[in-house]
């Protein structure tokens, strides 16, 4: 007797209505049955969750159809591996891209709820630090927008980086509890769980005549559990998946130990697991921090690859066609261990020959480099690597053997070139070079701006480029105009629609039509009014959070980015001190009122970066409270920079500070966001500033300072900053004031070492570029004094920034790297 049930055709639910009255009914239903609240006693956060659940239902319809489509067509999938995804708040992003903003707004209003109030309660997902993570978020949205099937893979950090507070001007790091009350956007996928191992030993098994097969027996094992968040493309065309991994113990509690009275020891496995995914970028100045960071990188890389291979086997019999159906993009070196892990999985778990596995791996992976700083190209001590990942160390040695033998025999590389391309750095303590591993294990290595890509070939990867001359290519970064124009700057978006029509919403290159309005006085007046409204919003935020009053008619001069010496917040602060001296010394001159804004976080172990934050706050305290300045200059450091804060600051900027030492910034994306929102850029010819100058026109950007070639030449020939300082009266006085304690009367030597660094070596060319920077700032003052000229330039910035859309970048990745 056959007990097999016949297949059942499972009916699909009808798509949800977008009518406001239907959505209002559903909001009440979610409030009642999912949250357990009566509308009469519901709090704003209850309404937010209910509204998200209603919007989420409509996203799911598109999400499931997007998934079914890939299985029907067999389209190639793209997998984007990144340790960071700085996605920010999702409510407005989702409803805007689903074209439901007016409907959900009306639905909530009919219930007496203001969408602006509840949307502001949504926490920022603490999944990133700065530009790299925000780029990953823009790319995920653009992949959905241009209809590329994609998964983003990362870590579901409980606390992420940290929440920044100020204590007497010093940065204080506190946990960012963004998950404290749950995350209504995510779905737990318990079926997508994978075992991750560390340590242990490797054994060779098999007969005498058989190829050896290796079995890794880890000493520690954890479970990676998947959590999915839907990522909506523009107009809901496609919904892709951001899959984040959370670590769980295999045995959550050791009952024998607990019952024996060792209550802490009984939970040690749970504590180890929780540590893995608790904090982004644990301080790696000590061995324990280094080990945790390596564990994190392997944890999410292994889980992601196991997931990718499982999905591939659902459709195909083996992995010989993996590279034809899968493209894996490594976002920087953090997931570079994936190269060795894929070979381990293919060979040790699925029985593939090593040479074939190596060939499939190289054709599957591509690698994006984001830095020219050698110290930022991760490397790990060989003993640590071998202890945590013994099988991977064997694989890396095997790869290295293939690469070095080929270089020596086929390309006739000499000893110095062999040392440069080796996966093992033999200088000093032996270390595994993750940048070199990512390079040799990928078929494509891309830079993120034209200048950065050229410099990669000449500096950090010069010898690898010589070995593989066709692998390096450029893909200049971009930003999603949905979030960084339409959502964060609705006033400007409406003005653009009124002037040039809505075509730019689907093709940002259409913004070029705005050029014809750049000198139109009526349009300039409307453009200026939008900018003023955005500045009032920022001024109100600062007044509410910090108690500082700001005049919106002053020039808003903004530098927001990670605090790092090469980004040169210090140059900006020193110039502020010099300007402060000039305003006091020459009160008879017609000074331009200016507010210098700073925001950004310093790595907890980066002493000089934290000292720069303290200096900014100390300088602000003195300048802002000096009546002699007459309000002509203010300095404001806004704590806890994140995406939501950027969404207020970017539209309010008059002047965008992009002043990194030339040759050290890979690209930048803040420069693009500011330009798109009608700010004038002051910057060096670094990163994407070079291409921005070419697109907006050199007359519509203020460029100063040494070029990358000049910086390299000055460093090699010998830089004498002391002589430069002695010849610059303004610079010498400003440095002396800071160093002597004018801004730190409670500790007069607080900044002495920081300033001595400028006098003695000035690696980041603060002294070298100061006079050029100060002159450029006075040039900016002259442009500001002529509103017709100012708005003509800033309108042209908005008009000519369309090329810097992440949609364009993703299309280039898809056609030239992924073949998707």
Inertia-based shape: globular
Q: How many strands, which pairing sense, and closed or not: the largest β-sheet?
A: 9 strands, mixed
Number of domains: 2
**Distance between the terminal alpha carbons, to the nearest Å?**
49 Å
**How many strand segments?**
22
What would you call the structural class? alpha/beta
Proportion of strand residues = 5-15%
Q: In order across it, which strands form the biggest sheet?
A: 5-8-9-2-1-10-11-15-16
**What is the CA-atom radius of gyration, in angstroms?**
28 Å
- Percentage of residues assigned to helices: 40-55%
Give the topology.
Layout: H1 20-33, H2 44-73, E1 77-81, H3 91-97, H4 101-110, H5 115-119, H6 131-145, E2 150-155, E3 163-167, E4 170-174, E5 187-198, E6 201-205, E7 213-217, E8 220-232, E9 239-249, H7 255-259, H8 268-276, H9 287-313, H10 322-325, E10 326-331, H11 338-349, H12 354-364, E11 365-368, E12 379-381, H13 382-388, H14 390-409, H15 415-421, E13 424-425, E14 431-433, H16 434-440, E15 444-447, H17 450-458, H18 462-467, E16 472-474, H19 481-487, H20 490-500, H21 521-546, E17 555-560, H22 569-585, E18 594-599, H23 607-624, E19 633-637, H24 643-652, E20 655-658, H25 670-676, E21 680-683, H26 689-696, E22 702-703, H27 708-717, H28 721-727, H29 729-740, H30 752-760, H31 766-784, H32 787-799, H33 806-818
Parallel strand pairs: 1-2, 1-10, 2-9, 10-11, 11-15, 15-16, 17-18, 17-20, 18-19, 20-21, 21-22
Antiparallel strand pairs: 3-4, 5-8, 6-7, 8-9, 12-14, 13-14
Helix pairs in contact: 1-2, 1-4, 6-33, 9-11, 11-12, 11-14, 13-14, 20-21, 21-24, 21-32, 22-23, 22-29, 29-30
